[in-house]
Amino acid sequence: xxxxxxxxxxxxxxxxxxxxxxxxxxxxxxxxxxxxxxxxxxxxxxxxxxxxxxxxxxxxxxxxxxxxxxxxxxxxxxxxxxxxxxxxxxxxxxxxxxxxxxxxxxxxxxxxxxxxxxxxxxxxxxxxxxxxxxxxxxxxxxxxxxxxxxxxxxxxxxxxxxxxxxxxxxxxxxxxxxxxxxxxxxxxxxxxxxxxxxxxxxxxxxxxxxxxxxxxxxxxxxxxxxxxxxxxxxxxxxxxxxxxxxxxxxxxxxxxxxxxxxxxxxxxxxxxxxxxxxxxxxxxxxxxxxxxxxxxxxxxxxxxxxxxxxxxxxxxxxxxxxxxxxxxxxxxxxxxxxxxxxxxxxxxxxxxxxxxxxxxxxxxxxxx
Length: 368
Fold this sequence. Notes:
Elements: H1 3-27, E1 51-58, H2 61-67, E2 83-88, E3 108-109, E4 115-118, E5 122-125, H3 131-142, E6 151-157, E7 163-167, E8 173-175, H4 183-189, E9 204-207, E10 210-212, H5 216-220, E11 236-239, E12 246-251, E13 257-260, H6 268-274, H7 284-287, E14 290-296, E15 299-305, H8 307-311, E16 325-328, H9 336-348, H10 356-363
Parallel strand pairs: 7-11, 12-16
Antiparallel strand pairs: 1-15, 2-3, 2-6, 4-5, 7-8, 9-10, 9-11, 12-13, 14-15, 14-16
């Protein structure tokens, strides 16, 4: 146990015995209050375990649909810089590219405004259309000049399809695959992931401004293929360095906010000490019911930990994980609803660096 923990123990020991002596002098033979009933979610007592209760919550299908409209079976839609080929049956002079010609670079280029130049019909907008829809639009345009045109439109190169791989990759950057990929396929484009120095707990997939609730630790370390989602064009995969690992401490502390890990480790007592917990006002009751939110992907775990047991040597140290949210309540009987009510306004100001579970489950619905 570190110097900070020893200091905490001494302060609490002195306060405890002073309080105990004063209580006996005043109350005489008053009976000792009964231990309150175990809270919902309480787990069986195990010697050396400081976790009093644990309960989980999983994002609903409706919540997941709200943040992502990706349909793995949806057809590809053309976008800027895509190259397409055009074949007009019985009219080879209208085909693109022309036989034996490489002047068009292998096809017709869709410009930034979604249009493309085609023989005879000139500029036509195909951006945002599927290949089938583009084929129908081109055929309708040619029908003004050709009776019942038979047209085929094919994708030569999907240059508008790109993914951003950022962070602990051996080959990060913008990647241009030839078709839409799932998460594992996209990760392979970045070479290898530096697992020894990557923070997989706080790694994420971003779709626009929204972080998707994907557990990259479970996917890459545990082999959980349920996390292998289909990506949308333009998605970013971000794997931070372990040097940025942090937990977040709020509530009755002097310095609320992020507490960094040291060499990949951070205990609960270390985090409380680093957050400037006010020892002069701290009560045993508050220390005995520390609330912790731990989220992995679409699942959040709500823990209540008795830090006093750890301080007194009655339980082993409680190791935090990167991204954990620690709340020190102002009273002994703070419920999870009360804790969340106090927590969420603070969390809303740093939602961009939190794991996505809390943002999706609570902040998006303004549940505070």
